[in-house]
Amino acid sequence: MTTQTQTTTTTNTAPSTLTPHHSIKIPRGPVTATLNFYQPPSDATKPFNYVEQPPPGHPQRNYSDTEQAVTINDVRGQEADFNINTHAFAAVQNIQSQANRATFEDDEAIKRVYYPEVEELLLRETGAKKVLLFDHTIRLATPGAKRAPVNRVHIDQTIASAAQRVRFHLPESEAEEALKGRYRIINVWRPLNPPIVAHPLAFADSTSVPDEAMVGIEHRYPDRTGETAAVKYTQGQRWWYWSGMEEGKRLLLQCFDTEGGARVPHSAFVDPRSEEGAGRESIEVRALIFG
Predict the structure, then answer these.
(1) Of residues 142 and 66, which shows the higher confidence score?
(2) At a CB cut-off of 8 Å and minimum separation 6, what does 185 contact?
(3) How much is the pTM?
(4) Distance between CA atoms of residues 17 and 286, nearest Å
(5) pLDDT > 60? residue 10
(6) Residue pair 204/239 in contact by the 8 Å Cβ criterion
(7) How far is CA 279 from CA 10, 194, 232, 266, 270, in A?
(8) Which residues pair with 250 in a beta bridge?
């Protein structure tokens, strides 16, 4: 296996001050909580979402949500029972990192210090031949944050947008060759103010969510249009979270795979057991995985 890696300079955050919290009670075990699932546009038009400010007279998005109470089980103590090829997520423990709080205050420091750690992790956990990190997002559950936790069930990529990503980030000749083999898109998610208590991340076992629950959403950037997937609620979905995620833990969330097709719906959610004032700060790094 070669350890060839690539990164881009693309990023979409301007991190604000990160705030640790201490001495907060950590809810554990299964919880019943509300998740927001896809509700189609009332006029039956194709659903869309503007990533930034929409044009005058246009809504931010033309579809809505429907609330559904679901049981969300705790993956803690069962981490080894899940793998990314089957369930589309992996709970990885005992990760050492040279990144500190100051690292995540600066995009260039994130790329210089944290990106190589993410590349090494993905190469080891997936057995891939090549990893290309193409962006990252810091999310803060604070008023006025540029990027807040997304409280809506979704998948970051679809079949169409995954291929588009390959063509967008690789030279044409290299992209066409890469598209002939296996490629995946995986997010690496970690807390920045551990332990995670408020707005934890819920993620669904891929095998419990049928393809017909997925709905393509036009993801409209100022200069291009991509596609994400919204998710409809269906009976039998199995949902998980990782209670009190600590510093040395990482969630791998697979959004697309040409081999097997496992993909993970996910969403932040409000845990009714969380103490008032407990914030959540996290970073997700997105990667194309080849081989």
Answers:
(1) 66
(2) 156, 157, 162, 165, 254, 255, 256, 286, 287, 288, 289
(3) 0.92
(4) 22
(5) no
(6) yes
(7) 27, 10, 28, 19, 11
(8) 92
